């Protein structure tokens, strides 16, 4: 039963639920930076596992369980999503190897994961579109600044460099903030658990089948790809009405579009399915070793969702960041408290 799970197993179950369903919830709420939010939650929960587990290797074990359950609940998740979870767990095991949660370790984990996520997006865009993407952005923004905004620009400005720098610095700031939370939240939860008579207002819960979100097929054309395609089309159209030909190479843009379509077709229709099948076969061989743990976590999903509902309801008197902070701490306290269902 859920009560029989250890604290580390309960946190692992919450991490698995977050990885499997949080993305869909954030998408429904139309919140930006969904990837950052999911990664931040994972970092905080890894910090919780480090705090409440006395077994060396528990973070890696929890990571594998999360991947197995994510593959069960959200089978259409892309390959990179599984690799991202594995990397988070691997870094967590590395930085919390001493089994003590320190501020420096939490900061290193938060910064590393956040920066890797940021650089990964830049790397992928460069692989798909080539340097033509960044040159096109530079040329367009220089043209707009000079011809439309009438700025006196003697030498071309590398706008893409500044955009990438802002993007990376944003990830750095989020990584620092998340690292601080990964250090402070477990301590706050530990203090709250010492308080007597923690009452958990359970609500009625649907069946397990209704609680597990139905997987949705992932769209291969992401918003970033759509934005780049629209930008390219706009540039091509503008080239017929404004003297852009001297500053923007339309042929290079067409080649960039053709290259990106070819790479995405090769990836999504040839490489990704084969890599996914390979990973599924590999994890299927490993699943037998963790069959009991996987089953325990899957059967705890309805209880977890009831705790999420109760924690969200208990934080209803607050708004914004304060509510999210209270909700997270309350949920973790409910999760780790040895309660009796009523």
Task: Lay out the secondary structure.
Blueprint: H1 7-28, H2 34-52, H3 58-73, H4 79-95, H5 103-129, H6 131-148, H7 159-193, H8 208-211, H9 223-238, H10 250-287, H11 291-299, H12 301-314, H13 320-336
Helix pairs in contact: 1-2, 1-3, 2-4, 2-5, 2-7, 3-4, 4-5, 5-6, 5-7, 7-13, 9-10, 12-13
What would you say this structure looks like, in words?
The structure is a single chain. By secondary structure, this protein is mainly alpha-helical. The chain has helices spanning 7-28, 34-52, 58-73, 79-95, 103-129, 131-148, 159-193, 208-211, 223-238, 250-287, 291-299, 301-314, 320-336. The two termini are 15 Å apart. The chain is elongated, with a radius of gyration of 23 Å. The protein is 74% helix and 0% strand. It contains 13 helices and no strands.
